[in-house]
Design brief:
The protein has about 375 residues and is an alpha/beta fold. The chain is about 35% helix and about 25% strand.
């Protein structure tokens, strides 16, 4: 029997999401997409004008005195950007001072450039900096993390005050105001382009032709699709963006954390668990648990960056007892947002690791090296 799944999304939002994903949404979904079509045309036209102004020199990108590498995607939702950024930042920082620049979604800060980590210590919590910035600051000792919507200002601060020589932009593909040396575009292998339409009638931030701007394409969640699906997707990308290197990536379960203690991922085998998460791709997290042998008794899904309340944790604990599950499992990103709450003893945190089999080639591309 399939586990129960509960979400915090409203019916209209669920209808839009199903239709934008290309899933069966019936007549209501068809009518909703039809109603959104004029706005889609306006969005496409505005984007086309904006980019053309740049090509003819009416808009100029700012050039900063550092190497700039962007990790982004064409669609809304979680494709694994933070995992790729973390993995790249850790490796690149071994040779040159790296700063991660991100907007700081979910945070309350209003400053142009908020230093979350100055390499030596974490300075800000998730409430102000946002969950992703706080998580990266914790997991990347020695790497500067700066939050703010204007990457020109956060980048300038990272260079002048934090001594950074390489800037790594988390979700930077659509930040056209700053010149980049490398654009890495992530594509979710499970649902690459939704229904193929751009906002607001689809998940696409840009048309598929934008893949040509990428210096590399990384297919994520590749362990969750068949070889035939993966092969077809690679062929599609090579037709749209010929000559671009295509990499594979997927999440692998790391350690299971409970307070100060740590267990190997193998401890999940045979466990009945309730899943509690508010991330962009909850299905992937649940799939990772199942791969390790856990049985998902119930999944409590909230929207990305959901600010957890004590009621949410109490509900998860209640459902654990009612289903007879041993643990409540959550992600490291979600656990950051539980810092000020009373966390039951049954809660466990899965520390996931991003795996890129062709990692050295991707690192060399970010460095500007060939081969």
């Amino acid at each position: 029997m399939e586990p129960a799944v509960k979400t915090g999304q409203g019916s209209l939002q669920q209808l839009w999401l199903a239709a934008a994903n290309g899933e069966p949404a019936g007549l209501p979904g068809t009518l909703l997409m039809f109603a959104l079509s004029p706005l889609e045309w306006l969005y496409r036209a505005g984007l086309k004008v904006y980019l053309r102004m740049e090509r003819v020199g009416l808009r100029r990108r700012r050039v900063l005195p550092a190497r700039v590498v962007s990790v982004g995607n064409l669609t809304l939702g979680g494709t694994g950007k933070t995992g790729i950024v973390e993995t790249l930042a850790r490796k690149l920082n071994e040779e040159t001072p790296v700063a991660v620049l991100l907007r700081g979604y979910g945070g309350t800060h209003s400053s142009d450039a908020l230093t979350v980590s100055n390499r030596e210590q974490v300075l800000e919590g998730w409430q102000k900096a946002g969950d992703e910035a706080a998580l990266l600051a914790r997991r990347l000792p020695g790497v500067a993390v700066v939050a703010g919507k204007d990457r020109r200002k956060t980048g300038a601060l990272a260079i002048s005050e934090l001594g950074s020589k390489l800037l790594l932009l988390d979700d930077g593909l659509q930040y056209w105001q700053l010149k980049r040396d490398v654009d890495i575009i992530l594509v979710d292998a499970r649902l690459p382009f939704g229904n193929g339409r751009v906002l607001p009638a689809g998940l696409m931030r840009e048309p598929l032709s934008a893949l040509r701007r990428g210096h590399a394409i990384v297919l994520t969640h590749t362990n969750e699709v068949t070889r035939d699906t993966l092969s077809l997707l690679r062929d599609t990308i090579r037709c749209i963006a010929p000559g671009r290197p295509v990499f594979h990536a997927f999440y692998r379960a790391g350690a299971i954390l409970a307070g100060e203690s740590e267990e190997p991922a193998a401890a999940l085998k045979g466990k009945d668990v309730v899943v509690l998460c508010g991330i962009g791709s909850p299905e992937s997290f649940e799939a990772t648990l199942r791969e390790e042998g856990a049985r998902v008794a119930e999944a409590l899904r909230f929207g990305d960056h959901h600010p957890f309340r004590q009621d949410d944790l109490d509900l998860a604990e209640e459902r654990r007892k009612e289903t007879g599950a041993q643990w409540v499992l959550t992600t490291a990103k979600d656990f950051v947002r539980m810092a000020d709450l009373r966390v039951p003893d049954s809660f466990r945190v899965l520390r996931a690791e991003m795996v890129v089999p062709e990692f050295e080639a991707l690192v060399n591309l970010a460095r500007g090296e060939q081969g």
